[in-house]
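Now for a chain:

_____
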Amino acid sequence: MASSLFALLDDIATLLDDVALMTKVAAKKTAGVLGDDLALNAQQVTGVNADRELPVVWAVAKGSLLNKAVLVPAALLISAFAPWLITPLLMLGGLFLCFEGTEKVHHLLQPAAQDAQHHQALVQAVADEQVDLLAFEKDKIKGAVRTDFILSAEIIVITLGTVATASMAQRVTVLVGISIFMTVGVYGLVAGIVKLDDAGLYLNRQRARWQQALGRSLLWVAPWLMKSLSFLGTVAMFLVGGGILAHGIPEIGHAIDALAVSVGWAEPLVANLLPALLGLLAGAVVLAGVSLWTRWRGAGQPA
C-alpha cells in the first residue's frame, strides 16, 4: 500500500515537472505576443479619464478571460479530434505575427502628420462635452477585447504546438496555466504602466526632495517605457513568427541551421537573425497582398 502511494506521488511529481517545463517553453515561445499585448493594451486606454483607467483595464481583463474560456476548449477539441490542424494553425499564427510586425514597421515609416492628426482628433473627442464619454469608453473596451481575442488565439495556438505530443491532462494544465498567467501578468503590468505617470505626479508634489526626484524620473521613464515595449514587442514578433515559419518548413529550417553552424562563433546571432529576416519578408508579402486586396475592393465599390 505504501509503495503504491509513493509510486503515485512520484508519478504526480513527474507530471508536474513535465507541465512546468512545457509551460516554461510555451511562455518563452509566446514572448513576442506578450510584448505586443502589453504595448497594445497600454495604448488602448489612451484618452480615458485618469480615474477610469483601472476600471477599463479590469473590464478588458475580464473580456480576455472570457476569450480564453472559449479558445482553450476549442484548442483542446482540435488537438483531440483534428491534431493535423495544429501545424497549419501554428503556421497561420506565425504568419499573422510577422504581418503584424511588418504593419508596425510600415506605420513607423508613415509621415508623422498622420499620428499628429489622430492624436488631435482624440483630444478633441475627449474635450467635447457633446461626446458621450461612457460610449467612448465602451468602444475602447470592445476594441481592446477584440484585439485581445486575436492575440490570445496566437498564444493558445503557439502553446498548443508546444504540447501537441503531451497527454490530454498535461495539455489542459499547460493551456489553462498559460492563459491565467498571461492574463494576470499582462493586465497587471498594464495597470501598473498606465498609472506610472499618476504615481510620478503624486511623488512630484511631495515635500521631500527624494520623492520629487523619483516622481520626475517616473514621468520621464513612462513614455520611454511604452516606446521600448512597442519596439521589443515588434522585434519579438519577427523572432517568434519567423522561427515558427522556419520550423514549419523543414527545408528552410535545415538551411538556416546549416548556415548558422558554418559561421562558427556567430552561430547564435545568425540562428536568430535569419528567422527574423524570414519573418520580415513573409510579413511584407502578406502586407502587400492585404493592401492590394483592400485597394481592389475599394475600387470595386460604387462611388
